[in-house]
Amino acid sequence: MKKRFLYTSVAVTALALFCPNISTAQKKSKATVKRNPVEQRVDSILKLMTLEEKVGQMNQYNGFWEVTGPAPKDGQAAQKYEHLKKGWVGSMLNVVGVKDVRALQKIAVEETRLGIPLIFGYDVIHGYQTISPVPLAEAASWDLEAIKKSAEMAAEEASSVGLNWTFAPMLDISRDARWGRVMEGAGEDPFLGSKIGVARVQGFQGDFSTSKNILACAKHFLGYGFAEAGRDYNTVDVSTNTLHNVLIPPFKAALDAGVRTFMNSFNEVDGIPATGNKYLQRDLLKGEWNFTGFMVSDWGSMGEMIAHGYAKDNKHAAEIAANAGSDMDMESYVYIEHLANLVKEGKVKQQVIDDAARRILRVKFELGLFDNPYKFCDEKREKATLGNAAMHTAALDMAKKSIVLLKNQNDLLPLKKSGQKIAVIGALANDKSSPLGGWRGASKDGSAVSVMEGLQKYKGNQLTYEKGADVYYGTPVFGLEVKINTTDKSGFDKAIQAAKNADVVVMVLGEVGFQSGEGRSRANIDLPGVQQELLEAVYQTNPNIVLVLNNGRPLALPWADANIPAIVEAWQLGTESGNAIAQVLYGDYNPSGKLPMTFPRSVGQLPIYYNQKTTGRPVENGEDSVFWSHYTDEENTPLYPFGYGLSYSKFEYSDLKVSSPSFSSNGKITVSVNVKNTSKVDGKEVVQMYLKDLIGSVTRPMKELKGFEMVSLKANETKTVTFTIDSKLIEFYTANNKWEAEPGDFKVFIGGSSDAKLEGNFEYKG
After folding, report:
1. What is the bridge-based pairing of β-strands 504-510 and 421-425?
2. pLDDT digit string (tens) for 411-422?
3. C-alpha of 648 from chain center
4. How far is CA 627 from each of CA 27, 621, 672, rounded to the nearest angstrom?
5. Is 298 a catalytic residue?
6. Cβ(329)–Cβ(58) below 8 Å
7. Which of 282, 458, 508, 699 could form a disulfide with 428 if both were Cys (CB 3.0 to 4.6 A apart)?
8. Whose CA is closest to 184, among 528, 572, 555, 452?
């Protein structure tokens, strides 16, 4: 017989908590639910909570002991266990599996005074056990429905093991490929980043109506992607203009989409660490934007304000963070140790604690945890969901859509399906772990389909594999430096011989999975180790090369672009990586991906991005003059621009039309263009619209993405694509320190990348 827990009386109304007649209390509580909204239910619980219990809701612990084993007897684990039993813990992270989650939730619900349930969090960044492409790769699909579906599947799998909160999506805009965490975001553009952020929030959260939905978390608030020199955790120093026009929009879009949690960032903004930044958290997010969810710190970031030189000790850090608006402490322990005393000393007001606790309780109600704290604890669903066929199907679909064709000289691709000798070269071609990326969740090492395995499913050609050279030594481990092979070329000769005997060479080169991600900044973003030398050595023997890139960031590949006939950007594509790559190489899937981030010619161009400003000296002024904005030893242009990507189809743009030469604040115009598939191959094209505001109260970018549409075109088919422009679309953060559309002249560009040449004009009259 199942035990009926007292959580119903706690969860629904505190008025029934301590009624000696349990059945009567339950009846009253159910009646209260029908007539009381969430806010009244939250208030009723708050009235019964002690100061320490409220602070406890603001405390999050990492998993600290083998949950199903004996309780810890001493040390920090024993102290955390006592806190748990006292109701002084609001959330746990990195506790996975229904058995363990249920055991901890049972302590919180049945053994504490008030029985308030826990939230269980985990880094479900691009999948839980079944891994989808890294987020930067997913962004390359420009397919919002596919990205939303990917998040839905990740949420379904994660929730099946008891989790109900992910620390995703990462909404940081970044223009610097040296920064390792570019793999976790949507690239360099705030418009695309906003659309993708919304898709991922909607995919993770749904409407919380089922146990398949989990909380999303908009991170990192704010500016983390602008770390100086691309060095993780480094100082961020941006203008008000950049803050509002570039960094903030994806977060505001996520909030408008209903995201219920935010995470602050490690960096400082305007000299103040984000964790202690009152303007960002309390004034902007909770004030101007009226955010009603809660803010969690990043791992240890409250304590790190000491190293920043902003807090003198942990107690001071707790005071700063709480007053600034950080609601939950992740792994700094400063709230649980100091916050109650700070209230008693008058350094933190009681209403600050009440506000934070209320926000956390509110979200727990919205998740349905008070009505059923074991909502996410279903062993049968766990067994049926983990790694099931539907997960793999979705991961494969997302992986194929994420691939970008960068070069295809003389139509070397797709490969013929029979009669060819193909040499496959590169350690990454046979690697079953690197495709999982740097945030691989609970996946098992070696669980990805390798490129070789994918190619071997096509039986018509003769395949030969040679490693050529190791990319790394040992086994890469999360949190530890990867040891790159910079000297051992002993496998070159075998690789060269294999290439000599082949019709086509497929070389799989790039980064190890753990070379991109948190703490994985690189000063050089070329092919790591001896891989460039291997590429050039094989090229000398057989130039008929298809270069398949596995990486988590843009790479600088000027030699490859100049010499290699076919280049495929295949990122780190997750569990189904090899199958997706093979299907694209053989033409069973026609690539349609577009770059979400600019690829530089040289690391010296970084940061590089398409929506830069013209400067006062944008072009050469006189023959051989040096007095203009340029490099003396490199071009200004990128290797591959934002929005770029080829297909096995060929597309032609023509006949751009603007419906009216002008419009006013209550009106709109349309811009249309004809897109024709001039090839004999059916395909998809991401049609992109860019605007240029010619004159502004502050200087404006050369171009800004303001619309895109995925269009399917059969061979020789033409379609008309139409975009709508209204005053909302052309708003920006002006010199008046507010979002508004300024009257003036605009140019509109439409094409297949940010290098779009087809243009028109219009005027906004205000």
Report:
1. parallel
2. 999 999 999 999
3. 28
4. 81, 7, 39
5. yes
6. yes
7. 508
8. 572
